[in-house]
Amino acid sequence: MRTPKNADLHGSAPDKCEVALLIVDVINDLEFPEAKQLLRFVRAMSRKLATLKRRAKAAGVPVIYVNDNFGRWRSDIRKLVEHCRKGQGRELVDTLRPDEDDYFVLKPKHSGFFSSTLETLLRYLDARRLIITGIAGNFCVLFTANDAYMRDYELMVPADCTISNTEKENRQALALMERYLKADIRPSTRIKFSPRGKGARVAKR
């Protein structure tokens, strides 16, 4: 006899929606050798992503930050935000810092699914389609999208809400996700959210 699952994660995942917005690695100090390359694209991407996030939340779509723990195994979200605001990533963090009602999943490696609680959380949210955004398109966004595809999620990776070290690398990553992971990569402005709690659809061309 199967044990019935709880209605939610002990009250920690009250939302139910077929769509979830994943924001990957934007709580970031940008203190690494390639950061100067990324910084060229941060402001434009972060503003577009902040707008997408506001629209998603207005439609009742849960927002999940999927973030590297930077090897800080004792960290929580507040400590991570505080740490990252001290580095070159301050503007990025201030633009996209999590709200109190957002979800936050710490990951130790590239994929948001590896050794994290993401898969369990998505199951309790009843999510079937993921909008994956963030940094970097050719690494953590790509790895997360790949693992999501293998778990049979429908994928949207808006091209204007993810960045890589170069425009070329980002285009290549997006093309790969579109071709092999069946991801919809139209820009965030073409994502139209249905009435609150009903999910998201994509505007016709």
Secondary-structure blueprint:
Layout: E1 19-24, H1 35-58, E2 63-68, H2 77-84, H3 90-96, E3 103-107, H4 118-125, E4 129-135, H5 140-150, E5 154-156, E6 162-163, H6 167-180, E7 191-193, E8 200-202
Helix pairs in contact: 1-3
Shape: globular
Number of strands: 8
Report strand %: 15-25%
Distance between the termini: 49 Å
Order of helices and strands: EHEHHEHEHEEHEE
Oligomer class? single chain
- CATH fold-level assignment: Rossmann fold
Largest sheet: 6 strands, parallel
- Tell me roughly what share of residues is in helical segments: 25-40%
Q: From the alpha-carbon coordinates, what is the Rg to the nearest angstrom?
A: 16 Å
Instruction: Point out poorly predicted stretches.
Output: none
Query: Which class do the helix and strand fractions yield?
Result: alpha/beta
Name of the CATH class: Alpha Beta
Q: What keyword list fits this structure?
A:
205 residues; alpha/beta; Rossmann fold; two-stranded antiparallel sheet; 6 helices
Would you mind describing this structure in some detail?
The chain has 205 residues and is of the alpha/beta class. It has one domain (19-202): Rossmann fold (3-Layer(aba) Sandwich). Helices cover 35% and strands 17% of the residues. The chain contains six helices and eight strands. The strands form two sheets. Strands 1, 2, 3, 4, 5 and 6 form a six-stranded parallel beta sheet that branches. Strands 7-8 form a two-stranded antiparallel sheet. The model has no long low-confidence stretch (mean pLDDT 88).
